[in-house]
Amino acid sequence: xxxxxxxxxxxxxxxxxxxxxxxxxxxxxxxxxxxxxxxxxxxxxxxxxxxxxxxxxxxxxxxxxxxxxxxxxxxxxxxxxxxxxxxxxxxxxxxxxxxxxxxxxxxxxxxxxxxxxxxx
Length: 120
Fold this sequence. Notes:
This protein has helices at about 5-15, 25-45, 75-90, 95-115, and strands at about 50, 55.
């Protein structure tokens, strides 16, 4: 899985797809993705063990590597997409509807982890 693919899917989840009218740039989604990766690595250390690499350490994905393949396993795809949508809707919004969407997407992100972490 690549950051560019996840960003494309997060744009669909947030309806931020119209060219020329996109609200967030790719680098903002990338920052949200890195935030989600940091959350995953600190709260769920088992995510550091991947099928391809073995035991990994957290390091931010830089903008120049946005098209590179990530080390995390594909089972975290739903989590990352929901996490980026959570950050998108929660970014500086005082709008009640967006705040509720952010909460829903955060809950979706945590639910996506539930079967992978034994329900914790």
